[in-house]
Amino acid sequence: MDRKCLLAIGAGALIRLVLFTAFPSLPTILAQRVEISTPVTSYKRLQEGVYLYTHGVSPYDGGVFHQAPLLLSLFSILPPSTIITNLLYVLADIFSAISLIQIASSGVPTVTPHHVSPRKANSWPPWAIAAAFLFNPFTIATCIARPTIVFTNTIILHSIAAAVNGRRGPAFVSIAMATYLSLYPALLLPPLLFLTYDSLKATPKPSIQAFSAITMIMLSIVLMIYFKLSHLITGSWEFVASTYGVHLLLPDLTPNVGLWWYFFIEMFDSFRAFFLCLFQLHLLIYVPSVCLRLRKQPLFALITLIGISSIFKSYPAIGDTGLYLSLLMLYNHMFSLMRYTFFLAAAILYATFLGPAFYYLWVYAGSGNANFFYAITLVWSISNALIVADAIYAALRDEHETERPELIGKDVVQI
Amino acid sequence: MTLLFARSHQWLTPSPLEILSRLLGFFLVFTLSGNTVVADTYKEKLDLQPLSGQFLLASFNFQNHGPIEAFNKQMFQLFPRSLGQILQYTHTRELHLRFALGRWDSELWGAQPGDGQNAGGTGVETWAWVEADNDVEAEARWTSLNNALSGLFCASLNFIDSTRTIRPVMSFNPTGDYPTTNTSRLFLLHGSLPKEPVCTENLTPFLKLLPCKGKSGISTLLDGHKLFDASFQSMSIDVRPICSPHTGTCDIEIQQTIDMVLDISRSLQRKDSPVPRPRDQHELICDTSKPYASNEYCYPMDNSIDLPWSLSDLFGRTISGGCPFAINLPAEETQHVCIRAPENKLTTMETLELAAPTLTEGQPDLKCYMLRENVPFDLSFPKQQPPISPLRQEPLLYAERSFTGHGQEHGGVKTVLRNPNPNDPIEVVYLESLPWFMKPYLHTFKAQVLPVLAGEEDVISELYYRPALDRKRGTQLEAKLIVPPNSVVILTYDFEKAVLRYTEYPPDANRGFDVASAIITIPPQRRRSDGKKVPATSIRTTSLLLSLPTPDFSMPYNVIIFTSTIMALAFGSIFNLLVRRFVAVDEVQRVDLKGKIRGLLGKLKKGKTE
C-alpha cells in the first residue's frame, strides 16, 4: 500500500469521524431514512434486539428484530458507548477500502487467465478506487446511519479480496458469513468459485469439479458452525424463521428503494405466494446465465450479480448500490464503451434527490400519496438495472475486441 | 290463579310467551319463598350523585346470587339462562364484560364510582378466567366464548382474535373464590375492541338479562336515547363464584351495572326540543366579566347555574314501581333509589306514599327511597338557594395518555400519571395492549419523575413485555411502578408504524386505527402515613387514534403492471446482451426503414399485377 492509498483511507476515516462528532444527531436522522435502513438492517431495530436479548426476552419471538444472532452477541458484548459503535462502523469501512485496494492491486479486473483487456492501461490506480468507495455519498450515508449492511459489505469485499489472491479458505469462510448475515450473498457463490479457481496458484490445478465439490462441503460445514453457534446463543431455532423467513416472505412492508414493498402491499392475497416465488426465482435466474456468459471475467460476473441483487432483492438499500458502484470502479477502463453514461448518471441523481422529497410529501406533508415515492423507486430501479446492462455491454464489447482487434472503434450490432 | 292473571295485565308486553315465562317465574318465586328451599336473591339499586359542572352520575346496579349447584345442574332461576349456558359450555369460571363510551373527566368529577372497578376502556373490553388443561384449549374456549357473547350482545366480540388477546400477568386477579378448582387450570385472557361503537343494540340484550327485563324497577329508566346521549356511560357484566367462608357453600353471582354521567342542562334541553337548537338570545346567560361583553356580544356561561331537575325530566319517564323480585327482601336491602347530596339539599317527592326517605346512620348526605310494586316513583330536585357545590372525591391517581411526534412513519407515546396525595406514594400497575402494526421500541421506554427527587429515579420495579408478531399477536406491556407523593411520572416510548397490505386496511383507512385504552390498576395497599387501606382501584385512559401511512387503494393493477414492466425491461436488456453475439455492422445485411418500405411496396405492386 502506497502513501496515496493511506492518504485516501485517512481522509475517508476523517470525514466519517467529523460527521459523527460534529453532527451528533445526524446518525439518528439518517438511521430513520427508509432509503438507508431496512427492517433487516436497521440500527434502531438492532438496539431493540440487543435490549431484549440482554433483558432475557427472545428478540426473535417478535416482529421488530430480523438480524442474525451473531450480530446480537457482538453488540451485546460491546460496551454501550456510541463512540465505540461509531468507531466500529468506521473501521468496517476502512477494512472495505483495504480489501478494494487489494482487489485493484491484484490486476484481476484487467487480466484474467482467459482474457486480457486491450484497455488495461486505462484502469485506475488502487488509491483512486479506494477513494471512490470512501467518498461515495451512498457509502458515507450508510456508514453514518449504521445499518448492519455495512458489515455484510465489508465481509463480501474481504471475500473477493481473498478470492482474487487465490486464498480459498478465507474467501469461503467470509462468503459463508455474508450469507449467514443477509442471505442474498449466497447468489455470489458460483462466480466466487470461478474467481477463486482462476486465481489458484497451486500447480497442477485440480479439476473444477473436484475443486467445487470440496469448496461446497467446506462452505456447508462453516455455515453449519455459524448456525450451531447461533443456536447456542439464542437457545432455539426460531431465529431462522425470523431472519431468513423475513428475507424470503416479506412480512414487513416498510417502504424502501426496491420494487417489492409496494407490489406486495397492492398484491391480491390469492396471488401473494405465487409472486413471492416468482420474485425470488427471478433473482436466481441471472446467476447461471451471467456466470456462463462472463466465464472469462468471473470478477465482473460477481460484480454484476451484486448489482442485480441490489436492485431485485427483498429489502434493498442505497448501501447495496454503493457497494456495486464502488466495485464497478474497478472496471473504469472500459467505461468508454458504455453507451448511456450521461443519461444514467442523470437518472440516478434525479432519483436520489426526488426520492426523499416525495417520501416527505407522502408521509409527513400529506400532500402526495404513496405513488409519488413508488414512482421514484421505479426510476431508481430501472436506472440501476440499465447501469448493470450497460456495464455488461461494455464488458462483452471488451471481450469481443480482444478476439477481433480489427473491430476496435467500429460500430457493432448483435445478432 | 286469578290474582296472578290480574298482575300480568299490568305489564307492558302483550306477548303470550313472555307472559307465560313471567308466570312461571312468579310461580317459582312463590313456591320457593313458601318453602324453605334457597332461591336466588336479586337486588337492584340506583345511586344518584350530582357532580360538579351540572352533571349527574346515575349508577344502576343489579345483582343476583344463586347457589352454584343449581347453576351447574342448569337449573336457572333468575340467572339468565342464555348467558349461563354459554359460560358452562366454554368452561368460563369468571367473566367480566365492559361496554363504555365517552371519557370520565376525573379533573371535574373526581374519582370514578365503585373505584373504577365497573368501568372499561372505550369500546368493548372483556376478560375471563377459563378453565382448561393447557393454553391451546384455553385459547379455543376463549374464542368460542367470544363468538357466543358476540351473538348474545350484538357486539363484534368475535373479532377478538389472537392479535387482540393478551394474557395480563400483574394487572388482574380473580375476584371470585375457587376453593375446589386448581388455580393452575385457570387461564386469564383479556381482549379489547376500542373501535366498537356501543349503542342501543347492546343495551337491549343487556336489559334482557335482568329478571324484570326493563319493564319494572329502576331499569325502566334505561332508554337507549338517554343512555347513549350521556357524556360518559359504562355498562358492565361480572359473573363470578362467591363462597361463604363460614358455611363453605358457594353461590354464583352476576352483577350488572350501568354508570352514566348526564349533562343536566343538555337533558333538560332535549326535553323541551328534541332537535338541538341554539338558545335564544334572551335565554343565554352571558359572562359579563369579559372585556367585550355588551348587548351585542355574549360569551355564554355553560353549566354554571343550579338547574332544577327531576328523574322524569332527565330520563323521559318515571320508575314504574319496584321489580317484584327485588322487593321481598329484608328491610336494610330494599333501598332502591339513593341520592347522595349535601345534607341541607332539598329533595321533594311526587308520590305521597313514599314521602319519607330512609337515612343511613353515619352518612348524613345519603337519602334512600324504597320502591313499591306498581307505584310509580319520581324524584325531583328543586333549585337550591344559595347554590350548593356537589361533593367531589379526589381520585387516587390522574392518568392521561397521548401520542407524540408527527408524520406517518414513527411516533411516540407519552403517559402522564399524577399522584395528588401530598404524603403517600402509590403503587400502580400499568398495562398496555397494542396492535401488531404499532411496533414499540422497548429500549426507548423511559420513566421520568417530576419534580426530580434524589433516589427516586428508578420508579419501575417490574416490567413484563411480550413483543408483537406480525399478523399473529399484539404487544403486551405491563409495568409495576411507584408514583411518589405529589409528583408526576411520565412514561414515554417510541414506536414505528407498519405499512399494511391494502386488504388489511378498514374502509375508512385515513381515519386511523384505534389503540385500546391503557389499564392502570392500583392494587390494594396500605397508606404509609395513616395506615388506612386503599381499595383496589382501576383507571382507564382514553383510547388513541393511530394514523398509518396508506397506499393508493385504487391501483393494484397499475402497480402490478408498472413493476412487472420494470422487471421485464431489466430482464430483457440484460438477457438480450447475454444471449446474442457481436458482429461488425458491415458483416450483416442490414435492412433499414427505407429498404423495408421499398420491400413492402414491391410486394403490394406484385399483388396488384397479379
From TrEMBL, chain A:
Any one GO biological process: GPI anchor biosynthetic process
Transmembrane segments: 70-92, 127-151, 171-195, 207-227, 259-287, 299-318, 338-360, 372-396
Record keywords, A-Z: Endoplasmic reticulum, GPI-anchor biosynthesis, Membrane, Transmembrane, Transmembrane helix
Topological relation to the membrane, as annotated: Multi-pass membrane protein
Pathway: Glycolipid biosynthesis; glycosylphosphatidylinositol-anchor biosynthesis
GO CC aspect terms: GPI-anchor transamidase complex
Protein localization: Endoplasmic reticulum membrane
Family per similarity comment: Belongs to the PIGU family.
Name of the protein: GPI transamidase subunit PIG-U
Annotated source species: Arthrobotrys flagrans (Nematode-trapping fungus)
Automatic annotation (TrEMBL), chain B:
Keywords carried by this UniProt record: Membrane, Transmembrane, Transmembrane helix
Native organism: Arthrobotrys flagrans (Nematode-trapping fungus)
InterPro entries membership: PIG-T
The protein's name in its UniProt record: Subunit of the glycosylphosphatidylinositol transamidase complex-like protein
Pfam families: Gpi16 (PF04113)
Keyword check for Membrane: yes
PANTHER family tied to this protein: GPI TRANSAMIDASE COMPONENT PIG-T (PTHR12959:SF11), GPI TRANSAMIDASE COMPONENT PIG-T-RELATED (PTHR12959)
Tree of life domain: Eukaryota
Transmembrane segments: 557-579
Single GO cellular component term: GPI-anchor transamidase complex
Gene Ontology BP, a term: attachment of GPI anchor to protein
Keyword Lyase (UniProt): no
